C-alpha cells in the first residue's frame, strides 16, 4: 500500500488551492467545495495508485461531505504525518 507524507499532502492541497479558480471554472457542476474535494480525491487516487476495488462508491449524488469522507477513507492507513488530515482537508475549503 502506497503512503503519502504530510508534506506531500500539503503540497497537493496547496496546488489545488492555487488552481482553485481554473478548477471551478472547468468543472461547473456542484458547489465549489464539492469540486475542490472531488479534485483532491482524484489526485489522491492517482498518487496512491488506489485499486478500483478500494475506491469509495457513492450511492446517489455525492455532496461535499461525501467527498470529504471519501478522502479521509483513502488516507486511512496511507497518511504519515503529525497533523490531523481532516484539518488539512478543511484548509482547502477556506
Compact summary:
With 94 residues, this protein is mainly α. It contains five helices and two strands.
Describe the structure.
The protein has 94 residues and is mostly helical. It has five helices and two strands; from the N terminus they run βααααβα. Strands 1-2 form a two-stranded parallel sheet. α1 runs parallel beside α5. The longest helix is centred in the middle third of the chain and has 16 residues, at 32-47. The chain is globular and about 35 Å long.
Compile the SSE list and pairings.
Layout: E1 4-5, H1 6-18, H2 20-26, H3 32-47, H4 64-75, E2 79-80, H5 85-92
Parallel strand pairs: 1-2
Question: What tags apply to this protein structure?
Answer:
mainly alpha; 94 residues; two-stranded parallel sheet; 4% strand
Q: What about the largest sheet?
A: 2 strands, parallel
Strand percentage lies at under 5%
How would you spell out the order of helices and strands? EHHHHEH
Rg over alpha carbons? 13 Å
Please give the order of strands in the largest beta sheet. 1-2
Question: What's the helical proportion of residues?
Answer: 55-70%
| Intertermini distance | 31 Å
The low-confidence runs, each spanning 5 or more residues with pLDDT under 50, are: none
**Count, helices:** 5
Molecular shape: globular
Total DSSP E strands: 2
Which structural class should the secondary elements be placed in? mainly alpha
- What integer is the average pLDDT? 95
Amino acid at each position: 500500500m502506497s503512503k503519502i507524507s504530510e508534506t506531500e499532502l500539503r503540497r497537493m492541497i496547496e496546488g489545488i488551492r492555487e488552481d482553485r479558480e481554473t478548477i471551478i471554472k472547468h468543472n461547473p457542476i456542484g458547489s465549489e467545495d464539492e469540486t475542490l474535494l472531488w479534485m483532491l480525491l482524484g489526485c489522491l487516487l492517482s498518487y496512491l495508485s488506489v485499486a478500483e476495488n478500494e475506491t469509495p462508491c457513492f450511492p446517489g449524488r455525492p455532496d461535499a461531505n461525501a467527498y470529504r469522507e471519501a478522502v479521509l477513507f483513502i488516507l486511512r492507513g496511507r497518511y504519515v504525518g503529525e497533523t490531523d488530515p481532516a484539518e488539512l482537508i478543511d484548509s482547502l475549503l477556506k
